UniProtKB/TrEMBL annotation, chain A:
Keyword ATP-binding recorded: yes
Superkingdom per UniProt: Bacteria
Source organism of the structure: Lutimaribacter degradans
Protein's name in the database: ABC transporter ATP-binding protein
Keywords for this protein: ATP-binding, Nucleotide-binding
UniProtKB/TrEMBL annotation, chain B:
Protein name per UniProt: ABC transporter ATP-binding protein
UniProt key word ATP-binding: yes
Domain of life: Bacteria
Keywords in alphabetical order: ATP-binding, Nucleotide-binding
Length: 325, 335
């Protein structure tokens, strides 16, 4: 089967300055990542701030071109952003971001905003009926469609954004922290909605979040990012039952839970990584509780440690696989 | 029972006639860690802002708040200022906006030490460094001359904690102290708060929307909804066997790392303070609501040693299967 979306060794740098007069220098936000998303599959991307997960999401949508590597959608190279081919393709790829209020126009009733993509892409037919159907599919009423964004709650606004993203019947949906701004009870509503819509429509989905618990809930596969690289990738069940990479193990153990704790908490020392000051060798070694001399000088490449399970760590080999937690 | 350190009785807060806190009773005992959980708009932060008299003038505050038995709501402003930052310290969610961007860390900590501890000169310098060491700041001495923008969010939160500890408080109020931080840094800060509390015998009020954070860091928990406490009790038993349908709902809505069982969302949204439903405020969203729930707002009463519950149907057995079907009629669910 051809993958819906494929990223091969993509890298993206930005230029920053230390201060007003400082030397401009490139910061590698994404540093050589290969990932695949199949139709009907949700790939979760986990990472802390500065890990490059949002940049990766933007490249997956073709909003930014990688400096190195390739992105293919349906086996065809991603066209340049803004080009005619890219605009046509955008029908098939949609996105949902964290802040629905920022993504909506405050002056327009939400139903008009939901059908806007149909207008933009010149999709004919009864646009209003399509809009009402989209509203219903996310659990909103026609009356709510007549309201302006500020008359809706945060969860309802995010439903509007989802309805708008799905009205062109896309095949790929990229969600960047879509429920992070929502309260727990509302977050559960939106997570369930995304799971249902994804299953009904056979969407390929990329779900980017810092919240492991939500990613666990929604993803088939999960990639863990640290400083622009994927340090571990596996089926969600495997990754959370038996995390292998020392960073994943710390992340999993740090997730707060009201239930009994099954693993000893690993508290990482040190600061979150700064992409502008990438350590030599393995980027995680200054915070890694098990780092060796080799980790300080040589960056580990992702390696297959079990079927469908890769990790980038010198200490991990198929034989050294850590038992389930 | 010992006198509580801080006691809040019958607290009501309203903004322009819209109630934000509706009759809260809460006590914090010396050295204990109390968690206050609730979603946005539940009144959990406003309760403590009102107790410490940090709300703007347009807020109407009624009730009694006492520290060691004496009322602090009627204290002269100057005496209240000695309590805030002195006996009661506060840290907020966003450290970078709570710190002054144009003053060095040394200046900001020194201010507290001069004001609340009457220190000066070399005494201040030594104590400021000791405090930064205490909160686990790497290179404490060098960091004293830094400015907030030169540090990460986690380091700024450490500075905030150091400033709150400078007044040697008996109680630290932490309002969503880790919400803006990354997961691994969140774990560091929570661990630090626990360690300091143990060493200094200080009481802690942890305000959070995250049940997991509260469950792991508090002895006792109060769950708030629409300006009221709906359930309180020891953290372990409350999370194990919640008695209030809202508390049950919050726990079921929370995803865990252990399974991918479908989340049980609470239907509907939080009520508008200007348009509160009749009877129990949670009634319209409650899968267990019955006719009696429309009559009155249920009072918070003791249902077991150390446990209090505000539910007209307080004999409900919520221990059954995790899934409640919100759309079915209440009678079906209860039977």
């Amino acid at each position: 089967m051809t993958p819906l979306l494929q990223l091969r060794d993509v890298a993206r740098s930005y230029v920053t300055r230390n201060n007003l007069f400082g030397q401009a220098r490139p910061v590698r936000a994404v540093d050589g990542i290969s990932l695949t998303v199949n139709a009907g599959e949700t790939l979760g991307i986990v990472g802390e701030s500065g890990s490059g997960k949002s940049t990766l999401g933007r490249m997956a949508l073709g909003l930014e071109l990688p400096d190195e590597g390739t992105v293919t959608f349906d086996d065809a190279p991603m066209p340049a952003p803004g080009s005619a081919a890219w605009r046509t393709l955008r029908r098939q790829m949609q996105m949902v971001f964290q802040d629905p209020l920022g993504a909506l126009d405050r002056r327009l009733p939400v139903l008009e905003q939901i059908i806007e993509p149909l207008v933009i892409h010149g999709i004919d037919g009864d646009q209003r009926s399509a809009g009402l159907a989209a509203l219903a599919s996310v659990g909103l009423s026609a009356a709510q469609g007549a309201r302006h964004p500020h008359e809706l709650s945060g969860g309802q606004r995010q439903r509007v954004v989802i309805a708008r993203a799905l009205i062109t019947s896309p095949r790929l949906l990229v969600c960047d922290e879509p429920v992070s701004a929502l309260d727990v009870s509302i977050q559960a509503q939106v997570v369930n909605l995304l799971i249902d819509l994804q299953a009904e429509r056979g969407l390929g989905m990329v779900f980017i979040s810092h919240d492991l618990r939500v990613v666990r809930q929604i993803s088939n596969r999960v990639a863990v990012m640290y400083l622009g690289r994927v340090v571990e990738e596996a089926a969600a069940d495997d990754l959370f039952r038996a995390p292998q990479h020392p960073y994943t193990r710390a992340l999993v153990s740090a997730a707060p839970s009201p239930g009994p704790r099954r693993v000893e908490r690993v508290i990482l020392t040190g600061e979150p990584p700064n992409p502008a000051a990438r350590p030599e060798g393995c980027a995680f070694h200054p915070r890694c509780p098990v780092a060796t001399a080799r980790c300080r000088t040589e960056a580990p490449a992702p390696a297959r440690i079990a079927p469908g399970h890769t990790a980038a760590c010198h200490l991990l080999t198929p034989a050294a696989k850590v038992a389930a937690r | 029972m010992k006198t509580p350190l801080v006691k809040i009785e019958g607290l009501n807060v309203a903004f322009d006639g819209a109630p934000a806190v509706r009759g809260v009773d809460l006590a914090v005992h010396p050295g204990e860690a109390l968690g206050l959980v609730g979603e946005s708009g539940s009144g959990k932060s406003v309760t403590w802002l009102a107790a410490l008299r940090l709300l703007p003038g347009k807020a109407s505050v009624q009730g009694r708040v006492s520290l060691d038995g004496s009322d602090i709501l009627s204290l002269p402003v100057r005496e209240m200022e000695r309590i805030r930052g002195g006996r009661i310290g506060i840290i907020f969610q966003d450290p970078s906006s709570a710190l002054n961007p144009v003053l060095s860390i040394r200046r900001q900590i020194s201010e507290v030490l001069a004001l609340h501890r009457g220190m000066s000169g070399s005494e201040i310098r030594a104590e400021a460094k000791r405090l930064l060491d205490l909160v686990g700041m790497p290179d404490a001495k060098g960091r004293l001359d830094s400015y907030p923008h030169e540090m990460s969010g986690g380091q700024n939160q450490r500075v905030m904690i150091a400033m709150a500890l400078a007044g040697q408080p008996d109680l630290l109020i932490a309002d969503e102290p880790t919400t803006a931080l990354d997961v691994t840094i969140q774990a560091q800060i929570l661990d630090l708060l626990q360690q300091i509390r143990r060493e200094m015998g200080m009481a802690l009020v942890l305000i959070s929307h995250d049940l997991g954070v509260v469950a792991e860091n508090c002895d006792r928990v109060a769950v708030m909804y629409a300006g009221r406490i709906v359930e309180s009790g020891p953290a372990a038993t409350l999370f194990d066997t919640p008695r209030h349908p809202y508390a049950r709902g919050l726990i079921d809505a929370l995803p865990t790392l252990d399974d991918t069982q479908r989340l049980v969302a609470i239907p509907g949204v939080v009520p508008d303070p200007r348009d509160m439903p009749r009877g129990c405020a949670f009634g319209p969203r409650c899968a267990y609501a019955g006719p009696e729930c429309l009559l009155d707002s249920p009072p918070l009463r003791a249902v077991a040693p150390g446990r209090r519950l505000a539910c007209a149907r307080h004999n409900l057995d919520l221990a059954g299967p995790k899934s409640t079907t919100p759309n079915s009629t209440p009678a079906e669910v209860v039977s």
